[in-house]
Amino acid sequence: MAVLGWLTPRRRSATARSVLAGEAAAEAARKSEQELAELAEAEARRKAETDSTSPSEPEFPVVGDDLAAAFFDLDNTVMQGAAIFHFGRGLYKRKFFQRRDLARFAWQQAWFRLAGVEDPEHMQDARESALSIVKGHRVSELMTIGEEIYDEYMADRIWPGTRALAQAHLDAGQKVWLVTAAPVETATIIARRLGLTGALGTVAESVGGVYTGRLVGEPLHGPAKAEAVRALAAAEGLDLTRCAAYSDSHNDIPMLSLVGHPYAINPDAKLRKHARTREWRLRDYRTGRKAAKVGIPAAAGVGALAGGTAAAVALHRRRR
Questions:
Q1: 74 to each of 96, 199, 318, how far by Cα in Å?
Q2: Which of 201, 232, 231 lies closest to 215, judged by CA?
Q3: Which of 104, 195, 202, 221 has its CA 20 to 30 A from that of 302?
Q4: CB contact at 8 A, 97 and 130
Q5: What is the pLDDT of residue 148?
Q6: In this predicted structure, what is the pLDDT of residue 293?
Q7: What is the DSSP string of 17-83?
């Protein structure tokens, strides 16, 4: 028995075998971890090489970038049609227009839409005519009416695609501003209803809360929009190269050119051509029929209510 015991390998205790199993398992785990890490690294390299050869847009807007903001034109960018057009419909319904004004307003509107030229004399006449509509009315009265008009004519005309773009900036923690030639009161109502940060718009002079019939400066149109965005960015401490701007009109090329991320939304022909040349991003949310109407320029820059006169004329004709 002693000899047999000597010839047979001594069996380790259960405790020793457990230790050995544990050490072996730990070593295998470390080995498999290293192998998996090497495989993951190789897969990441392969994916990066594949992505670099295929066109893709970087993540935008960048979440948490508080030096960035977004600036949206209003008419035909955020809203179908012109805010002033719809606002004018609401004012005519409330008898702000006199019948004798209709012919003059209609002629001024037709000039801008058909000629597409901002003649200074016509522009001045249009502004004075439009501002005369609100002269003597209280700002608070027009704000209340503006809320009603938004529900009546504007709420259903917001482009869902553009609204989603604005929401993406808000979700990323960025501020979103409307920038428009429409009255700042109207623009502010729309911005608030859409949950945006605020609005830059044309400022009509008021004294003691009553409109005087004059503008403060000029309508917020074309280069003036770019200056407003530049001033706001400086006040807010924004980096314009990290900001985005969205518009449908070639008149807003100065504003679009200010930022690092310009977008052409439902663009007119001139803006589409310019955007393609500069390789700006384009989005078009119109149907083919609506897009075909872009060739007729809108009455930009009147700064108040002249844009609503075409609707007023149409309503007047129907009632007659």
A1: 24, 10, 29
A2: 201
A3: 195
A4: no
A5: 96
A6: 45
A7: HHHHHHHHHHHHHHHHHHHHHHHHHHHHHHHHHHHHHS--PPP-SPTT-TT-EEEEE-BTTTBSS-H
**Distance between CA 285 and CA 290 in Å, rounded?**
9
Tell me if 122 sits within 8 A of 108, measured CB to CB: yes
Q: Which amino acid is at 151?
A: D
Residue 218's pLDDT is 82
The b-or-e profile of 127-143 (16+ CB within 10 A means b, else e) is: bebbbebbeebeeeebe
* 230-280 pLDDT per residue, tens: 999 999 999 999 999 999 999 999 999 999 999 999 999 999 999 999 999
Structural element, H or E, at residue 193: helix 184-193
- How many angstroms separate the CA atoms of 38 and 47, rounded? 14
Q: What's phi and psi for 137, nearest 5 deg?
A: -90, 150
Q: How far apart are CA 46 and CA 279, in angstroms?
A: 29
In the block, which residue shows the tokens 């050995």? 20
pLDDT of residue 96: 82
Both tokens of 90, joined, read 């609401």
- Which residues are part of the catalytic machinery? 73, 75
The neighbour count for residue 76, using CB atoms within 10 Å, is 23
Distances (CA, A) of 263 to 70, 229, 237, 303: 10, 15, 22, 24
What length does the chain have? 320
- The residues of the chain scoring below 70 in pLDDT are 1-37, 39-40, 42-58, 98-130, 288-320
Instruction: Report the predicted TM-score, pTM, of the whole model to 2 decimal places.
Output: 0.69
Backbone angles phi, psi at 280, to 5 degrees: -80, 155
Cα–Cα distance list, 52 to 41, 43, 44, 101 (Å): 16, 14, 12, 62
